[in-house]
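Predict the holo structure. Ligand: asparagine.
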Amino acid sequence: KEAETQQKLANVVILATGGTIAGAGASAANSATYQAAKVGIEQLIAGVPELSQLANVRGEQVMQIASESITNDNLLQLGRRVAELADSKDVDGIVITHGTDTLEETAYFLNLVEKTDKPIIVVGSMRPGTAMSADGMLNLYNAVAVASSKEARGKGVLVTMNDEIQSGRDVSKMINIKTEAFKSAWGPLGMVVEGKSYWFRMPAKRHTMDSEFDIKTIESLPNVEIAYSYGNVSDTAYKALAQSGAKAIIHAGTGNGSVSSRVVPALQGLRKDGVQIIRSSHVNAGGFVLRNAEQPDDKYDWVVAHDLNPQKARILAMVALTKTNDSKELQRMFWEY
Ligand SMILES: NC(=O)C[C@H](N)C(=O)O
């Protein structure tokens, strides 16, 4: 009987990378003061015995870090392992446990470069497992539930936090002190309740199977940096980033990706020197940058990041630059992905 149910259940691999979902604090009252990336994957799985009712689950510890320290090499390592697993016949879905600070970046990266329609779910938690009302157990349970469902196929990389199923492209960490931390300007794709998924919409942007990018052909990622804008901003950071070898600079702009008149000449000069200038917005609830609004992008040969926040714009710019350094092509990619 047991062997029969095992055969019917989906095979889900959990790749653990660290973060607060693997965090531990000194007492149950420590919801914000704790160490991330302490608990190993076997212990995480053992902490949620109900997972075995959803899927045949096995774990792999890919790395053990707090996600603010993730590097491009870490991204490539994780992306390659996901691709290997997605290619193997005995894997139906993949879950990645991840710190929440850069979870949205990793989810978007995988959404761009993984050539599979198998569910890939990135999940984290806002509180360590040692805290009262820890959210990691249920988030992980939901992630495995979605990863083992057929309906999650072909919907791109997904994020399950706070009972919601979000598109890895759209979702962003909007607040750092609530379990209701992950939001998308365009709303969640669905909900997961007691291990069952309820879907409401589909992602409209190109991803995974329909993407022109493939982790298997990416050897390294170019240096793309972000410079933040604010009142009285100077051009020092932009120039320094270019000098240190940035191939593109994401302008984390105010409002509609607007650029201070004190910075415009430097950006014009950097573009002439070959650095790509990509205008994004750091508006919290979701920036939306229009071409030739605020600045004459056609004239200056700049790119706009569409609705991607600066950190997501960095991910797409890096991946895009592995294919082209043509600003028109880059702009096309920013509209399509
Ligand atoms: N909630 C978290 O996971 C935060 C942690 N600093 C991380 O991203 O790894």
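The two ends are 46 Å apart (CA to CA). The pocket of asparagine is lined by residues 19-20, 36, 66-68, 99-101, 124, 126 (CB under 6 Å).
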